[in-house]
Design the sequence.
């Protein structure tokens, strides 16, 4: 009976440790919202301020950096916002990459309200 209690404590500790790891996971990436559509956003990590207002088709040939379309159910994102994101499931390695967003967090930059 004593060994069963010890085993239970060890199993519970490992289970809780695994949950904690998931809660503090590193983001998959960060960048700026470049385009917003009904159910997805395009995030670029190396966009020039002068490119905002253009569409992806206008800049993709000269763009150097990471780009990802993230499926999301929220429409709260606006072009130019800095965000960090976590993906859910796999990432389609096309260019731009494509994935489902687990979470997208808006990063307030100095000077933003």
Sequence:
């Amino acid at each position: 009976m004593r060994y069963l209690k010890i085993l239970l404590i060890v199993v519970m500790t490992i289970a809780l440790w695994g949950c904690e790891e998931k809660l503090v996971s590193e983001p998959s990436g960060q960048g700026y919202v470049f385009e917003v559509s009904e159910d997805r956003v395009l995030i670029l990590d190396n966009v020039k301020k002068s490119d905002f207002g253009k569409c992806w088709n206008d800049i993709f040939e000269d763009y150097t950096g990471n780009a990802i379309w993230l499926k999301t159910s929220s429409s709260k994102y606006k072009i130019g916002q800095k965000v960090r994101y976590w993906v859910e499931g796999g990432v389609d390695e096309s260019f731009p990459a494509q994935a489902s967003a687990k979470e997208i967090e808006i990063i307030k930059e100095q000077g933003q309200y």
